[in-house]
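Input chain follows. Return structure tokens only.
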Amino acid sequence: MPTLLFISPSAYPLGGVATWMGYLARGLPERGWNVVVGLVSGTHHDVAAYLREHHDFSSVEISNRTGSYEGRIRALVDTLSATRPDIVLGVNIADVYEAVSRVRLDGSLPELRCVMTNHGIQPDLFEDVARECARIDAIACSNKLAVEIARQCGASTERLFYVPYGVPQARERALNSSEGASDCVRIAYVGRLEQWQKRVLDLAPICDALEAREIMFLLTIAGTGPDEPALREALKHHSAAGRVKWLGAVAADDVAHEVYADADILLNLSLWETGPIVIWEAMSHGVAVLSTRYIGSGREGALVDRVNCCLFDIGDTDAAATLIAEVSNRQVREALVEAGLQLVESRYSVDASVTAWHEALQSVLRLPVVQSFSTPTTSTNGRLDRVFGAQFAETIRRIARRSFVHTEAGGEWPHSLGGRPLGDPAFWEMASRVDTRSAQ
């Protein structure tokens, strides 16, 4: 039985990536895999809190006592040496690839396969693809646009895999949830309260436009994030009028009965997505979907306007309000719901996703291990590194019990090592062009 080791952050137990990893950790053992989830820990990564949400799989904690770059690599190497996996999957932990190179170079795990999992469409993530594709065995993407961009970054076709997200099927409950009528259209937003990708501040002008049209609505917001204070301020008029319901963070197992059971419409406002899981979940539970034409939706080819959802341009809040008014009609909504259920059943079920991953990982085992290994990289984290070198300085830190203080999760355990800014216009122009070209 081959052993599969995930290496993942523990800072985001309620996100879509955590949901994905959870169902794979439960589903792949049924197909003959021994699965271990390695969770990095630290000031901003609470393994205990993560395991309170996801506790039905085997896990190990990966601790970096010094907070340095070299400390991260050593912690990962120790975990690889202890678990001795056949395949390791990097899940938004960029240092995995250097750690794998080290255990290959020292001969302790020469046959270890390494897979990069890509969960985003961002310039820094594809910098990582371009830098690492020569020394990792495969790249697995949950979105067809991400596959194509990875190919353009130098990843070879035979080592690229498309493995979409999946959600549990709930057809019987979904059909029941559409019964009943109300003059008030019930809108749900589920996800991180963040502006750059999720564009949550677009909720305010949408609510303003609905009020101006004298459309009765209740907006339920499930999630937390860095832009929650700004969103609360922007929606304070509607909150005071009882038109906004704030749920805060909702566990994945509770979203169905706390949100979808009382929703007519799911609203997605994103700039880009590689799923999103939330859309497939909503469809599975009989909720009509209104979404932006986000970057990642074109090449994927799943969302069809006015067939299984309704689409509007990114940032076009007036169009979103108009569509909400249209979809408040029950007959219109039920047609979208039925087509959405069919889409999830045919392409985005948990079983289909687990099967796709099982087949991809079997293919990775059949591929020869890549032979292009870098020599261990060095990185300075302060004066000790500059004076003594990174590896000896790390030993000094451990003996002296010295550690770096990080202000956020991505500094403590970086999600990528790329330096291109998120707003890099050249990247977004390319991504939009490639995605739109496929959709035409």
